């Protein structure tokens, strides 16, 4: 502790002394900025970057007579030069910088902090920011936060006599629009930023710099695949050459009078500003005709190109045009009959643009639609997964929902979309309005409370599932205990809510209520509901008595498929959690639990999780859950594809379900069940309205006799905004680094089934085709030159999920198979340097390719045995 106090005392003493009044300290300054693929000292291939050199004069021209720690320092830049790469070194390059005469600037420094700067508003941006960067080297404080050229930053000091090392990270510039940043996750980008500055003072009783060196890097990657990257490396050095006397000093009592006196004596337009860097002016693209642009890329947007890179690229190129579109532009595009064949893709673009006028125009276009409209639903699905929604999106959905009595399917999609948009909005912690979130939570819960029928309740619960409000958990537990279909939806919703602290679940009351759901206390529960309740309890690290209550169900063989499925969930959890495994295996030998029945189940239900793509820089897993009925008939299956890093994140979930199917296998009818089957989809974490295949025996037989289900039927088609992320970091030399990530996902998921009543068998296929295009860009803009880089990776493939079923005798025989063809993953890296007012350009491009061979995936052993029997 005494060392910390000594350090702080020393640092305070350091900042108590400023530059000597009336003395000019003359420095040599050099800063080099390069754009590389990796953040290492030496890179193979051509250097892409620039160097600036200059002479810097720092002169203390005023010290406050009443406060010796406050001083005004004049900064002058002389003989500034631009250098460009030539082979492995740099050579001087004639540029506009040679024609510029720098005007003096003035900084107010107090207690080691640079509070204000006065400079000429007409001076070139590169020099104004360069002075701010040099002024930031004079920031020597004892706080954990500093505001300098980069904005507000976290800092850490190390002091050894007159050597000071400062590490700076986590910077935020006040002029950057936070709404451009996407919530952190697999769909966003990651930036790594660190600056280390080493300064040597003339002596340990002075705050005069003798030498300073700075090393900084900013690395940009996509969280989907972390190998392609871009890194800005910046190195600077300020070295004292000597001193001279300055005759012009000021003796006024206050700084305001001093500045007025300076303004009268210098031929420049001095303006007061903060030390943060001035950002380059963003030129607005000249407005293009939206219809002409759509026509230009119409071929790529055609239905035949869905799930292909051609459609993803066309979408990427068109998105900026839709972002700048007016309300009239959108209405005209939607009314244009020439674009009817690609109207779905146009609606995807409108949703992805998140343009307020465009969103309002589209809802206005559909305002009188009360029947089911496939294109309207597609627009809503696209809205549900936009990466960075704003408040007006939720408001427009709510207005549209309440304005007219809509078709039941459209109403269901409106509610699930509202929930999904709310969740993404709430993840944007820097800009989300907590009161707005609370108002919408109340709105969705009120909507649930007003429901009079089961269909309405399930739809409302799905909306809450997408929204993921932690404070909804007590209400969801109420519905979980009521039993029936709403109970299943309620526990699915609870399981999906991200509540790291588990405030609303860890209470003994919540634990008890979940256990009652599992044990069917009060109301009979669907087996799926019970197994999910058990899963939730496992994650809560429940009391031993609770675990015993769950484990005892394993020895109940009145429903062998449920016991088998529950056992699979328990042992999967044990494989993932050593503490849970230890607790379970201590309890299994107990007499009333029965080790034998617990580990030797006779049902065919199963679940597992395995790697789909597993490498150091990309980890994607797939998981399958199969909940069977007696007679080997499928009750419910779930196929998951998840990103595993930087956190577990859903890419796609396909769930197949059926009710009333037991009689087809010669079993007993499920109580209160109506024969039907369907599919549930979750895309990028957003649960969609279920797709129903058939309802009732007559409809099922109609499909079987007519063969109408044998043609692939689209279940989900669209082109979606996968990533839309922007960041800004200003380097220590005043150059603004702007980073951007755009991603496009083009999908086409279809299903088909062929049923032969004569041969008593069926073959079904779920084909999930997709194409992904990701492009990250980095621009370092000094106002004099522009360093630009981009990495791009893309690929397209299809995952087939095939099921062969023979129902000529009971139990049925079923074989499931999953495969994908060869995948070619292409990735490019482009870097360039251009100089303002010059034809000079420097470019470097690298193209690579990674092949992922075709593969058939092994499922569980019982499935493999049945597949061998059916061959």
TrEMBL record:
Positions of the Vitellogenin domain: 19-649
Signal peptide limits: 1-18
Record Pfam families: MTP_lip_bd, Vitellogenin_N
Gene Ontology CC, one term: Golgi apparatus
Subcellular location: Endoplasmic reticulum
GO biological process per UniProt: lipoprotein metabolic process
InterPro entries: Lipid_transp_b-sht_shell (IPR015819), Lipovitellin_superhlx_dom (IPR011030), MTP_lip-bd (IPR045811), MTTP (IPR039988), Vitellogenin_N (IPR001747)
Entry keywords, A to Z: Endoplasmic reticulum, Signal, Transport
PANTHER family in UniProt: MICROSOMAL TRIACYLGLYCEROL TRANSFER PROTEIN (PTHR13024:SF0), MICROSOMAL TRIGLYCERIDE TRANSFER PROTEIN, LARGE SUBUNIT (PTHR13024)
Protein name: Microsomal triglyceride transfer protein large subunit
Organism of this sequence: Parasteatoda tepidariorum (Common house spider)
Lineage, uppermost ranks: Eukaryota, Metazoa, Ecdysozoa, Arthropoda, Chelicerata
């Amino acid at each position: 502790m005494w060392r910390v106090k000594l350090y702080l005392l020393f640092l305070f003493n350091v900042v108590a002394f400023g530059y000597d009044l009336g003395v000019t300290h003359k420095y040599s300054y050099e800063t080099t900025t390069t754009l590389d693929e990796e953040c290492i000292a030496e890179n193979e291939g051509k250097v892409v970057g620039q160097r600036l050199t200059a002479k810097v004069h720092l002169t203390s021209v005023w010290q406050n007579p009443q406060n010796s720690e406050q001083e005004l320092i004049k900064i002058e830049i002389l003989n500034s030069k631009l250098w460009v790469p030539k082979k492995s070194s740099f050579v001087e390059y004639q540029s506009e910088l040679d024609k510029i005469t720098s005007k003096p600037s003035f900084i107010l420094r107090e207690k080691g902090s640079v509070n204000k700067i006065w400079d000429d508003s007409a001076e070139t941006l590169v020099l104004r920011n360069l002075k701010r960067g040099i002024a930031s080297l004079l920031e020597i404080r004892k706080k954990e936060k500093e505001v300098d050229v980069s904005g507000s930053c976290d800092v850490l000091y190390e002091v050894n006599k007159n050597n000071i090392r400062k590490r700076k990270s986590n910077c935020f510039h006040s002029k950057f629009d936070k709404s451009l940043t996407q919530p952190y996750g697999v769909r966003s980008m990651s930036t790594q930023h660190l600056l280390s500055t080493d300064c040597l003072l003339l002596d340990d009783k002075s705050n005069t710099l003798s030498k300073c060196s700075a090393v900084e890097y900013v690395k940009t990657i996509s969280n989907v695949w972390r190998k392609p990257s871009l890194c800005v490396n910046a190195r600077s050095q300020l070295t004292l050459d000597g001193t001279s006397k300055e005759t012009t000093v000021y003796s006024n009592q206050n700084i305001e009078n001093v500045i007025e006196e300076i303004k009268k004596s210098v031929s420049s337009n001095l303006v007061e500003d903060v030390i943060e860097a001035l950002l380059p002016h963003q030129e607005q693209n000249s407005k293009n005709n939206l219809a002409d642009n759509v026509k230009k890329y119409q071929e790529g947007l055609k239905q035949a190109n869905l799930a292909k890179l051609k459609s993803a690229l066309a979408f990427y190129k068109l998105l900026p045009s839709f972002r700048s579109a007016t309300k009239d532009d959108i209405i005209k595009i939607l009314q244009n009959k020439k674009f009817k064949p690609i109207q779905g893709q146009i609606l995807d673009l409108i949703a992805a643009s998140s343009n307020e006028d465009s969103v309002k125009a589209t809802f206005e276009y559909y305002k009188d639609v009360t029947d089911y409209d496939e294109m309207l639903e597609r627009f809503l699905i696209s809205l549900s997964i936009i990466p960075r929604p704003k408040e007006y999106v939720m408001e427009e959905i709510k207005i549209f929902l309440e304005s007219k009595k809509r078709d039941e399917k459209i109403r269901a999609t409106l509610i699930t979309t509202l929930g999904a948009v709310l969740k993404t909005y709430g993840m944007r912690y820097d800009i989300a309005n907590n009161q707005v979130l609370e108002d919408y939570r109340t709105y969705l819960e009120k909507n649930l409370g007003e429901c009079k029928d089961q269909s309405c309740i399930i739809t409302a619960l799905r909306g809450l599932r997408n929204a993921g409000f932690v404070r909804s958990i007590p209400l969801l537990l109420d519905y979980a205990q009521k039993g029936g279909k709403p109970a299943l939806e309620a526990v699915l919703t609870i399981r999906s809510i991200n509540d790291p602290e588990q405030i609303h679940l860890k209470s003994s009351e919540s634990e008890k209520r979940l256990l009652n759901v599992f044990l069917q206390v009060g109301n009979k529960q669907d087996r799926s509901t019970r197994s999910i309740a058990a899963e939730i309890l496992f994650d809560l690290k429940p009391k031993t008595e609770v675990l015993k209550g769950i484990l005892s169900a394993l020895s109940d063989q009145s429903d062998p498929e449920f016991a088998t499925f529950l056992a699979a969930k328990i042992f999967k959890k044990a494989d993932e959690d050593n503490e849970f495994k230890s607790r379970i295996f201590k309890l299994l030998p107990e007499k009333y639990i029965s080790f034998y029945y617990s580990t030797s189940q006779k049902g065919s239900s199963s679940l597992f999780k395995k790697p789909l793509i597993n490498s150091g820089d990309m980890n994607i897993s797939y998981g399958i859950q199969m909940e069977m009925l007696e007679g080997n008939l499928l009750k419910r299956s779930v196929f998951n594809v998840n990103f595993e890093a930087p956190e577990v994140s859903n890419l796609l979930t396909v769930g197949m379900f059926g009710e009333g199917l037991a009689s087809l296998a010669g079993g007993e009818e499920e109580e209160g069940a109506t024969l039907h089957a369907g599919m549930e989809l979750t895309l990028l974490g957003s649960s969609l309205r279920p797709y129903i295949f058939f309802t009732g025996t007559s409809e099922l037989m109609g499909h079987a006799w007519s063969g109408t289900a044998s043609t692939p039927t689209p279940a989900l088609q669209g082109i979606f905004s996968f990533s839309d992320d922007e960041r800004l970091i200003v380097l220590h030399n005043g150059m603004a680094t702007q980073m951007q990530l755009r991603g496009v996902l083009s999908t086409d998921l279809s299903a088909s089934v062929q049923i032969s009543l004569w041969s008593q068998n069926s073959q079904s296929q779920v084909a999930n085709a997709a194409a992904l295009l990701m492009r990250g860009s980095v621009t370092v803009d000094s106002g004099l030159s522009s360093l630009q880089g981009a990495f791009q990776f893309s690929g397209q493939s299809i995952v087939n999920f095939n099921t062969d079923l023979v129902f000529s005798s009971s139990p049925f025989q079923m074989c499931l198979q999953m495969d994908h063809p060869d995948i070619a993953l292409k990735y490019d890296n482009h870097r360039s340097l251009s100089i303002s007012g010059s034809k000079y350009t420097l470019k470097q491009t690298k193209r690579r390719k990674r092949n992922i061979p075709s593969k058939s995936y092994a499922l569980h052993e019982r499935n493999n045995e049945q597949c061998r029997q059916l061959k």
